[in-house]
Amino acid sequence: MRSIRYAIESGRAIVLTLDAPASSVNLMNAGFRTDLHEALAAIRRDLQAHPELQGVIITSAKSTFFAGADLKALLGVGPLDAADFFREVEAMKADLRALERLGKPVVAAMSGSALGGGLEVVLACHHRIVVDRPGLEIGFPEASLGLLPGAGGIVKTVRLKGIQAAVETLTESRRLTPKQALEMGWVTQIVTHEDALMPAAFAALEGGHCTQPWDNPKHRIPGGGPTNPSVAAMLSVAPAMLLEKTRGNFPAQEAILAVAVESAGLDFDTALRIESRWLTRLATGQVSKNMITAFFFNLNDIKSDRSRPSAEAARMTMKLGVLGAGMMGAGIAWAAASRGISVVLKDLTREKAEQGKALSARLLARRVEQGRIPPEKAQATLQRIQATADAADLRGCDLVIEAVFEDAALKAQVTQEALAFANEELIFASNTSTLPISELARASHRPENFIGIHFFSPVEKMPLVEIIRGRQTGDAALAKAYDFVKQLGKTPIVVNDARGFYTSRVFGSYVNEGMALLGEGVLPARIENIAAQFGMPVGPLAVLDEVSLKLADDVLHQELDAIADAAGNRGHDHRHGHGHGHDHSHEHGHGHGHGHGHDHAHEHGHEHDHGHGHDHAHEHDHGHGHDHGHREDQGRRQGRRTAPRSQRMAESAVYVLEKMAHGFKRMGRAYGGGFYDYPEGEPKRLWPGLVAFSRAARPISDTDIRDRLTMVQSIETLRCLQEGVVRAEHDANIGAIMGWGFPAWTGGTLQYVHHVGAPRFLARCKALQAQYGDRFAPPAILHTLAEAEHDRASAA
Amino acid sequence: MSEVFIYDAIRTPRGRGKSSGALHEVKPIRLLSNLMRSLAERTQLDTSRVDDVVIGCVSPVGEQGSVIARTAALAAGWDLRAAGVQINRFCASGLEAVNLAAQKVASGWEDLVVAGGVESMSRVPMGSDGGAWAHDPEINVLTSFVPQGIGADLVATLDGYSREDLDAFGAQSHCKAAQAQAAGYFHRSIIPVCDELGLPILDHDETIRPETSIQSLASLKPSFERLGAMGFDAIALRKYPQVERIAHVHHAGNSSGIVDGAALMLLGNAQAATTLGLEPRARVVATALTGTDPTIMLTGPAPASRKALARAGLEANDIDLFEVNEAFAAVVLRFMSELTIPAEKVNVNGGAIAMGHPLGATGCIILGTLLDELERRELRRGLATLCVGGGMGIATIIERV
Questions:
Q1: Do B231 and A686 touch (CB under 8 A)?
Q2: Which residues of A touch B241 (CB under 8 A)?
């Protein structure tokens, strides 16, 4: 019994202290299972030998009571292991069942959190006492990892609190406070101080109560079983309500609902066995692997600073400068001030800066209204933000982030303005979403202190921040940025410098593919619905409307200019031929969000104060998208033949973009409409004019549409990995999920390759490439992954 | 294979399927057993010669449980040798009972079979029997279960039927039914429901509203909008991604009514008729079943009818009259458009929108109505068809003799 200390205390009780060796937590691993089995034998023996013993107390030597399943081991459980896994689960449950049927009281004494399997150990006790401590969590997080509570968690919660409450709590992986857990029936008693815990546990032995509610023949399920008419009425709708949220992509949630319902109509022991079978299905399946990889291992890699230079000392940001008080600047100021950082929020005029500060005032007022913070604290937070038009106020800042319009010249100007007041240590960051950091860094005489910190919009809601390391960015700057992001309570990923970095680039591949499909004549509703069914929070056309087609158009032109530059055939009149020299009427940053997909910021194109509107004068008679025919730009017209052709976008996508932006002049939601119409007070509707793109094209299957929209993102991720833009799996996966809402069930764009299976993914890429073009060409790294997977499979 | 003849077809009037409906006070077993008594009386039937009583019932639980066919035969005082079986093919149960009876006779292994159906929807509500399809979450998800109304609205959305199109059809149903009722076209088949002393309870279809118009229907709220928003629309769109959103256009006025009622039909071979002195009214020409997508659920009538026509070696225009169950207006409109059938051949005396759809009985009722009308118009062939839960379709072709 290495993980359980066994003792008889005061001659009254057997006390089991859970204390896994060489580990900071107790886990339900093979060692624990064996130890529990041995402990049970010892308990039976001692209870028989010493009838004066009143019962058993289970407690923990760790700061948490019990942390749950051994996820590392679970990653290794494959379809071929089903029989063994099922047997192990059943054996474990048999021991927990034996514990609750000892005939003597068993008490759980918890001074720390009990999650997952840990809570299931607790639920095998008749008395469940917990210390009411802030931060102590009790719950079943299994569903968030694609699993279900399979050691009695579902069956017992249903019997304690009813089908509906159990399903809601478990499918949403809710973690409860001790008080809420008492309400759920998970614990039976709360003590206020740790000192009171063991006395309460001994006292609980006194009554001799040792029958679980489910072993009482008179016990009825609260709210009724599945044949109860009101429950039955709920049952036919419950799956639809669940699928509305999960789109059918989360097998764990469906399984929990199925087990909860079926178990409620069965005797307790059969119900437990059904639960084990469903757990085995989930644990041997792929989605749990994806979610464990992303939400446990990848997130832990980020939490443990795997992408941060380890030699650098921790660096707290004390005073932050924010240049530009638009939507993004205001959001960054809020994020920092609300975490106790002093902020200097600078814009061209004091008035503009105050407008930016007003965002924090609004957010704080809402929190005060909701009773989440006291008014004094709100006041203090607001006072941390100094709104100014004077660059001299930036003195003393240890980090400055510029969030001005997406224009290299303007950015250079504000960079130099700020650096004039900077000390040697200052780290300067650009919140650009597209402009290469290494080029922007030229504006600084200390490029090693220059870095990209790319926030997502709306900053106050989006959890991810993409840190971009320029060619000359030093470790100190990277460590500073990384620590700053963590200081904000956000999740940092670290990528290297390249056009579009990581998130904008891969996100772009998604929306471009949406336009490509439209351009090939696929009905827009099909494109949007199939993307939504895969789990993308918003369809590609809808999200393009949100970020504005103008942004997409600008990005396209930036790319084409760069290509022309590289080819050395760009005329001097080019830049102005675009008509967007300095008149950027948008900020950058995507409004697409993970988890709140319908809650977009619409900052793109809102702010016309800097510009005179976009004045493209395109011809619209050209049939093909890669033809940009600006009337005033003969140079481009000539250059057309010698190339500018997007390397990222299919011709049909360029065609759709040009036609929408310049032909139909439908630039997106902020411009009054794009792919959708936005009738006042009604849901948006696809714009009927999109019929212009419909044609009797060759039919494209739903599967092809899905794979094109989704695999293109994984392929682009693989390219980023291959090019060194992304360096680590955790940055790729978490960036995809938290950045632009690639569905959680996939485990991220990189993990999705493993979901499909790398060899199959490779074959599929080749097929898509043959049919739809070279953007589906498998990157070399995919061949490597496929071979590795193949080798592993043959080894196993 | 023996030829199968229809010797008689009778039914109860249909009563509003609520506690305020006239037939709510009548036990389903009595709706059926009294009708059996009437059948035996008016055909002078030697019930000892009945091989089987096949009764459709869609919620065969509670008062309708425990093989209501056999219980009703006993309650009706029929000879003990008349066996009984209860069947369920959702909304097609009544026609399935007829088809199964016809197949029994055609096989040559039975001579005389009574078919029919019963449903007291006011006393045993729809869904009372539970079942894995809707109530087992695993299977519900697996089969993309949605309530039928969502499927009906999906049919309308896909085919472009507007609310006005459907309301016009609904109003027509009432108008045609009212005329037929006033002209006494249903008299031959309707057996008034009486209490055990013979005191009258209901002698006519209770839900026909002659004053119904597109205008009067316009104010009715869509019935399935809320259910759709709860998640069922999204499930339907998983299979029909080409639809941006489902237009919820069906409501109580262009969908079948919930009613109580029962129906019976006497089928047999030629020899049984001779022995018993029965006069054949029609011949069963062909029957057919099919399955389609269970999520849209209601598109079975056209493929089932094509199958029956093919089996009979006939074309759609060989059929003189059609009865297409008016589960939802869009179902009938789609059927007519798929088989290119003129409206004047379809449901000429109204349908379930006006008179209601007592689930287990309807198929038998509409086949009887079809037979009456073929005789009245002195036409030859008729086809009855219904859409069926779970995405099935059923059709029966008859021919007067």
A1: no
A2: 525-526, 529-530, 533, 702
Which pLDDT score, from 0 to 100, does residue A642 have? 52
B222-280 per-position pLDDT tens digit = 999 999 999 999 999 999 999 999 999 999 999 999 999 999 999 999 999 899 999 99
Q: Give A231 to chain B, closest Cα distance, Å.
A: 10
Q: Which residues, at least 6 apart from A414, have a Cβ–Cβ distance to it below 8 Å?
A: A323, A324, A402, A404
Which residues in chain A are closer than 8 Å to B127, comparing Cβ atoms?
232, 236
The helix or strand, by DSSP H or E, that contains position B386, with its residue range, turns out to be strand B381-388
Which stretches of A286-369 are assigned E, i.e. beta strand?
319-323, 342-346
Min Cα–Cα distance to chain B from A21, Å: 41
**Amino acid identity for residue A92 in this structure:** M
Sheet holding A138-139, edge to edge: A114-115, A138-139, A175-176
Please name the member of A261, A523, A533 whose beta carbon is closest to the beta carbon of B137.
A261
Distance from CA of A238 to the nearest CA of B (A): 8
Average pLDDT of B304-333? 98
Provide DSSP, A68-133.
Answer: EE-HHHHHT--GGGHHHHHHHHHHHHHHHHHHHTSSS-EEEEESS-EETHHHHHHHTSSEEEEE--
The verdict on a CB contact (< 8 Å) between B242 and A262 is no
Token digits of residue B379: 């036409």
CB contact (8 A) between residue A240 and residue B242: no
Angle at A776 between CA A773 and CA A782, to 5 degrees: 150
Going from the C-alpha of B354 to that of each of A260, A543, B175, B329, the distances in angstroms are 42, 47, 8, 11
How many angstroms separate the CA atoms of A588 and A570, rounded? Answer: 26
Whether residue B230 and residue A529 make contact (CB cut-off 8 A), yes or no, is no
Among all residues of B, which ones are annotated catalytic?
Answer: 91, 357, 387
Q: Given the residues A126, A454, A557, A588, select the one marked as catalytic.
A: A454
Quick one: tokens of A7?
């003792």
Contact A403, A329 (CB under 8 A): yes
pLDDT in the model for residue A635? 41
**CB-based contact A243 B234, cutoff 8 Å:** yes
Task: Look at A240 and B231 and tell me if their CB atoms are within 8 Å.
Answer: yes
pLDDT value for A549 = 95
Provide block-wise average pLDDT over 10 residues at a time, chain A (796 residues): 94 96 92 96 96 96 92 94 97 97 97 96 98 96 97 98 96 97 98 97 92 96 90 90 93 97 96 98 97 97 96 94 96 97 97 97 96 94 97 96 93 94 92 91 95 95 96 97 98 94 95 97 97 97 96 87 75 39 37 37 35 36 38 42 74 96 96 96 96 86 98 98 96 98 98 97 98 96 94 80
Interchain CB contact of A282 with B (< 8 Å): no
Angstrom CA distances, A283 to A116, A148, A307, B46, stand at 14, 9, 29, 65
Report chain A residues whose CB lies below 8 A from the CB of B136: 235, 258, 261-262
Q: Please name the amino acid found at residue A696.
A: A
Chain A residues with CB inside 8 Å of B131's CB? Answer: none
- B11 beta partners: B190, B263
A247 Cβ under 8 Å from any chain B Cβ:
yes
Alpha-carbon distance B102 to B98, whole Å?
6
Say how far apart CA A124 and CA A211 lie, in whole Å: 11
Alpha carbons within 13 angstroms on the beta-carbon side of residue B135 total 18
* Rounded percentage of chain A residues whose pLDDT exceeds 70: 90
- Chains A & B: contacts with CB separation below 8 Å: 84
Asked whether the beta carbons of residue B241 and residue A702 sit closer than 8 angstroms, the reply is yes
Alpha-carbon gap, residue A701 to B249, rounded angstroms: 29
